[in-house]
Queue: 2 jobs
Job 1
Amino acid sequence: MSEVYQFVDEVVTRRKFEKEWAQFEATREHYRREGVFLLQKEYPDLYFAFAAPHLSPQAIVFATRINFTNYDIWAPSVRFVDALTLQPILAPQMQTQLVRNLGGEGNVRPQPLVQAQRDQVPFVCFAGVREYHEHGRHKDDPWLMHRGRGEGRLCFLLDNLALYGTSAV
């Protein structure tokens, strides 16, 4: 992974980070019931664990680091981490693929949302995620076209990660 640098005024980025954080805080109980747990908050990163609330006992399915460097000129980065150590993991360590079904009745095609390049660093691939917009296959879908529509907001990311990551477990 290449080195990430802060080029947006950090005061601006922190203010936007805190706004996203405040919205999560206001809905924290909702997310807890959905199996989304904050593990750590340390600007510009938020670490979350995603549990399958419909299992008994509940199980942590995956954990993420959501990075807000240069937000919102850049979309947030979503990377997968070990839920206990918060260290990055590689694609072979992923136990889920966050599958989204495409198509209609009789023509449903599963699309895995967890992708990796040759470096084997997994990332989630949907609009509103930095890695999606930086990927060559999505060069015609730039972040700035999505920026004002809600994609890339913390709650949008958490909702979609929970929907595609734990509902099918």
Job 2
Amino acid sequence: MNLSRREFSRLGAMGLAARILPEGFAQASNRKIGYCVIGIGRIADHFLRGVQQSSYSKITGFVSGHRDKAERFAAQYGVPKDSIYSYEDMDRMIDNKQIDAVYVALPNNMHAEYTIRSAKAGKHVLCEKPMSTTVADAEAMIAACKAANVKLMIAYRLHYEPLNLKAIQMIRNGDIGEVQTINGAFGFNIARGEWRATKKYGGGGSLFDVGIYVVNASRYLTGEEPASFTGVASTLDHDGRFNEVEENVSWTIKFPSGILATGSSTYGAAMPGYFKVFGTKGWLGMDPAYNYDGLRLRAVYSNGKGSTPVVIDEVNPERDPKQFAREADHMSECILNNRTPTSPGEEGLRDMRYIQAIYRAAGINVG
């Protein structure tokens, strides 16, 4: 996400469209985009509740391996039973005109298959991150959506979150001076039996799941693409949870300007997600930075020699699932007005390449 100031202004305008633009902006008819949710797990529940708060989006279908569960959700969201599909017969949605797009909320290794199948059914795709488990799959997803002439957006909800956008704008404005270093981390103590801790479904360990937030933030904060990487990984807890994937990863990214970004992710400890950016005139940071709500931006910097330092301390009062509402409406606005999403498939592909590079630097093969 290499942004000039003009490009950043466009990002902000598009990312915040669902919040600041007048009702009916997307299209004179006020038509809402219908989403079919593929996979009804924890992340899908956040998205479903977000769509209820949205302006241009609605739920019009489900794909699930559990018919009874899907019928309960369909009743809750007003979806007819004939718009419920199994994984085997979901290709029939090609004939369902109430479904404009899909939201792929499956384990990481399934993103490619169901994105490609949805594209072939003529549906736009909003896919959760990480985009896939391999670079090749990410490339195939982009190619399939282009061939079908449908939009592909990766669910980087923080690209549309006001305080993250304000942090970027402050850096671009030079408020903290010339950026020198960035620190960031995110993690949690994973429970036993989670699919995320399997190589097959997760693709890798904590870096794929929560480290991606830190990697992606370093890119949108600097406005640069990485030049080189270092990486190390370790597993301390030999309790059966990490038989297939690593527990901890730490890395350093060097950007072309010389900015250094260090990051860490873990599945072995509560590690509230944060970033902190240090510049020649001061610093800014967010803690928490990646949560669904309660995000806090703080900064201290000087406007000049002898001046009183500027101190900023802001909390976003919005609650979960507002981030998902904004994300869904951005995708819907892009479909209604034939625009490219701010976080297209190419954005997800870049992170896949960088994650792979960090793993390789750490001596781990992730395919």
